[in-house]
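## Example record

The block below lists the input lines for one assembly entry, exactly as stored, with component labels intact.
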Amino acid sequence: MQWVNALLQGVLLGGLYALFACGLSLLFGVMRVVNLAHGDFAVLAAYLALAVITGIHLPLLWSPLVVAPLFGVVGYGVQRFVLQRSLDVSPLTTLLVTFGLSIVLQNAMLEGFSANSHSLPSGSLASGAFRLTPQLAVGHASLIVFGAAVVAIAVIQVFLSRTSTGRRIRAAADDPEAASLTGTNVRHVFGIAAAIAFASVALAGIAFGSYSSFDPGSGPQRLIFAFEAVVIGGVGSLWGTLLGGVILGVAQALGAQVDSGFGVLAGHLVFLAVLALRPNGLIQARLT
Amino acid sequence: MARSRRPPTVTALLSTVVVLALVSAPYVVYADITSLLVNLFILLVLATTWNLLAGYAGLISVGQQAYVGIGAYTVLVLAQNGVSPYLAIPVAAAVCAAAALPISLLVFRLRNEYFAIGTWVVAEALLLIAVRFPSLGGGTGASLPGLSGFDPALRQAFTYWAALAVVVATLVGAYLLLRSRVGLDLTAIRDDEVGAASVGVRVSRAKRIVYLAAAAGGGAAGALLAVSQLNVLAGNVFSVQWSAYMIFVAVIGGVGTIEGPILGTAIFFTLQHTLAQNGAWYLILVGGIAVVVAMYAPRGLWGLVADRFDLRLFPVGYYLHDERVEPP
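Predicted structure tokens for the full assembly:
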């Protein structure tokens, strides 16, 4: 029964990873940018949410309404002024630039916020749970996060496939030159895609912040989990990212059940196994 | 065709003088300067090998710390079994090259950015495995046995000379590798991988050779780390911070040249020591400089100097001499 409980918690944890990873997947699928600073931006979002919650006494569930749009604007700016420039130099430069950004962000947060760890106050949300059976419980918070992940991925997918801006983004992703020939401002739509990705990072950061504690150095670990979710599920498919997140979460939860220190390592081993046996991931589809 | 504009004897002479001066350092300066130099040499080894990977094989790795860790732990294990830590340094390099072979079979399945993070995950997995062994110190580190019989000043000097030997071997090795047939293959791969394959260059073999060489370099650096710090802590030797340092140094100095990492290391150390009191600010500054250099000066600061003054200290390319210039 403990195993079933671990499985359940793993699935819900996977929702958190998927929410975090869908921004990474979007950035890579559209712009071929792997944002190594992804995790650190999420931590920054958590700090901002903390400031907003403690500063103007906003309830936790309202904080995304403030932080996410702000991050959308930040994302647009980062894409147009930093990432676009790096993409113009060479595709691999973005890797170096985002890595540099990651280190700069971590140390800036260290200087600005000190190394103490914090966590977002979630009040009654943290302890409430649905009791399925006497041994199985599903936390309210985990369920909300899983639901948010599914909704976010569905919204982004619909946006990309049904709206005209989404069409332009897919066109620019396929072939930037041809897209600009048809009148699409490629740099602008890339900025929009980045804005969406960063808004999802803000959501994920807030979710992580309420789920566990965070400190300026938490970013890289989160990035690795997001990346593993994307690769396991299949690069280029948003639903694949959800699947990958769930598989990773389950692997970690079952691993932790075996031995309390083994959870994260189990996730890494599953990732390396997928790499060895099926490097294109489980769902092989293109974002478009 | 010639290998360089000026005869390479100038550089050879200059280098010999520099190396002799460095060899005499323990007799001339205090131990804190030689220990600073040891750290500088370790970083230079790491930056040079990273530069070989990224600048010549096109493999951007964020996981070289895996080999720093394997190297350090090899020295620890050998020292715990009675081998002198100094003798363990070349063994650590060899062990890392051997370990790199199966790892390369795994990570070479990934391209570009995914290769980068794949190597990082391998390093993280090794970290998590290493802390499960209490005999190796677990999560809290183990001290290095076998060096307590030495007089501290002598031990410092031996460590310094070992570090100097490793860095000279690395630079000379990189230079010879790039001037060899493999180096020509790498330049072709760097320019156009598909084109290189179509003229018969064995691309994966060349990349694998460089990957193993870089692993050996990382292992030697890790071994030096263990010997100079006298203890091995998993969270330190497997830390991604090493990748941050080597990438910043190589990018600022200039990816794709041997002189670049030398310049980059010098700049890094100067910044680190002038800003040491201000906490993490030097790292913010170094990171910011690396980002700006990557975006606006892709050949790094040495690249700017070399292009401006047409200077090549370690000539690894080819020049076309045409003595019979006929007027049209």
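Residues 11-119+138-215 of chain A form one domain. The beta strands of chain A are 129-131, 137-139.
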